[in-house]
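Translate sequence into C-alpha coordinates.
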Amino acid sequence: MTENDKQIEVSAELPGLERKDVEISIEDRTLTIRGEKKLEEEKRDQNYHLTERSYGSFYRELLLPRGVDPSSVRATMSKGVLKVTIPRPALSETKKIEVKEAA
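Result follows.
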Protein backbone atom coordinates (compact mmCIF):
# COMPACT_ATOMS: atom_id res chain seq x y z
CA MET A 1 0.00 0.00 0.00
CA THR A 2 1.42 3.38 -1.01
CA GLU A 3 -0.07 6.83 -0.68
CA ASN A 4 0.56 10.41 -1.63
CA ASP A 5 -1.42 13.66 -1.42
CA LYS A 6 -3.78 12.64 -4.23
CA GLN A 7 -4.37 8.91 -3.91
CA ILE A 8 -3.86 5.62 -2.13
CA GLU A 9 -2.70 2.66 -4.22
CA VAL A 10 -3.00 -0.94 -3.12
CA SER A 11 -0.98 -3.50 -5.11
CA ALA A 12 -1.31 -7.26 -4.76
CA GLU A 13 0.59 -9.96 -6.60
CA LEU A 14 -1.84 -12.70 -7.56
CA PRO A 15 0.08 -15.11 -9.79
CA GLY A 16 -2.08 -17.52 -11.75
CA LEU A 17 -5.29 -15.58 -11.11
CA GLU A 18 -7.41 -13.78 -13.67
CA ARG A 19 -9.77 -10.82 -13.25
CA LYS A 20 -12.76 -13.14 -12.97
CA ASP A 21 -11.14 -14.85 -9.95
CA VAL A 22 -10.89 -11.62 -7.90
CA GLU A 23 -13.65 -9.70 -6.10
CA ILE A 24 -13.21 -6.23 -4.61
CA SER A 25 -15.77 -4.50 -2.39
CA ILE A 26 -16.02 -1.49 -0.09
CA GLU A 27 -18.34 -1.42 2.88
CA ASP A 28 -18.25 1.54 5.24
CA ARG A 29 -14.49 2.24 5.44
CA THR A 30 -13.29 -1.30 4.71
CA LEU A 31 -11.78 -2.36 1.38
CA THR A 32 -12.00 -6.14 0.92
CA ILE A 33 -10.08 -8.09 -1.72
CA ARG A 34 -11.13 -11.73 -2.15
CA GLY A 35 -10.00 -14.38 -4.57
CA GLU A 36 -9.93 -18.06 -5.28
CA LYS A 37 -7.34 -20.02 -7.20
CA LYS A 38 -8.23 -23.26 -8.91
CA LEU A 39 -5.51 -25.16 -10.69
CA GLU A 40 -5.83 -28.50 -12.40
CA GLU A 41 -2.91 -30.13 -14.17
CA GLU A 42 -3.04 -33.39 -16.05
CA LYS A 43 -0.11 -35.36 -17.44
CA ARG A 44 -0.35 -38.50 -19.51
CA ASP A 45 2.33 -40.78 -20.72
CA GLN A 46 2.45 -44.29 -22.02
CA ASN A 47 3.00 -45.70 -18.53
CA TYR A 48 1.17 -43.28 -16.23
CA HIS A 49 -1.65 -40.78 -15.85
CA LEU A 50 -1.24 -37.99 -13.28
CA THR A 51 -3.88 -35.43 -12.29
CA GLU A 52 -3.13 -32.73 -9.70
CA ARG A 53 -5.63 -30.23 -8.34
CA SER A 54 -5.03 -27.36 -5.99
CA TYR A 55 -7.54 -24.91 -4.63
CA GLY A 56 -7.19 -21.99 -2.31
CA SER A 57 -9.01 -18.85 -1.36
CA PHE A 58 -7.85 -15.66 0.32
CA TYR A 59 -9.08 -12.30 1.48
CA ARG A 60 -7.56 -9.12 2.81
CA GLU A 61 -9.27 -6.20 4.50
CA LEU A 62 -7.85 -2.69 4.67
CA LEU A 63 -9.26 0.25 6.63
CA LEU A 64 -9.67 3.35 4.45
CA PRO A 65 -9.73 7.00 5.56
CA ARG A 66 -13.09 8.61 6.24
CA GLY A 67 -14.84 10.18 3.27
CA VAL A 68 -13.66 7.83 0.50
CA ASP A 69 -16.20 7.76 -2.35
CA PRO A 70 -16.62 4.08 -3.38
CA SER A 71 -17.71 5.08 -6.90
CA SER A 72 -14.32 6.75 -7.51
CA VAL A 73 -12.25 3.64 -6.70
CA ARG A 74 -10.62 1.99 -9.75
CA ALA A 75 -9.06 -1.47 -10.06
CA THR A 76 -6.91 -2.93 -12.82
CA MET A 77 -5.16 -6.26 -13.23
CA SER A 78 -2.30 -7.10 -15.55
CA LYS A 79 0.03 -10.12 -15.60
CA GLY A 80 -1.08 -11.27 -12.16
CA VAL A 81 -0.70 -7.87 -10.46
CA LEU A 82 -3.82 -6.18 -9.08
CA LYS A 83 -3.77 -2.41 -8.55
CA VAL A 84 -6.56 -0.62 -6.70
CA THR A 85 -6.45 3.19 -6.88
CA ILE A 86 -8.40 5.17 -4.29
CA PRO A 87 -8.57 8.98 -4.62
CA ARG A 88 -7.90 10.69 -1.30
CA PRO A 89 -10.95 12.40 0.16
CA ALA A 90 -10.87 16.17 0.46
CA LEU A 91 -9.88 17.31 3.93
CA SER A 92 -12.73 18.78 5.86
CA GLU A 93 -12.25 22.34 6.99
CA THR A 94 -12.77 23.43 10.56
CA LYS A 95 -15.49 26.01 10.76
CA LYS A 96 -15.70 28.29 13.74
CA ILE A 97 -19.24 28.93 14.93
CA GLU A 98 -20.02 32.13 16.75
CA VAL A 99 -21.96 31.76 19.97
CA LYS A 100 -24.76 34.33 20.15
CA GLU A 101 -26.89 35.58 22.97
CA ALA A 102 -30.13 33.66 23.36
CA ALA A 103 -33.31 35.65 22.68
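Note: Strands lie at 2-3, 7-13, 22-27, 30-44, 49-63, 74-78, 81-87.
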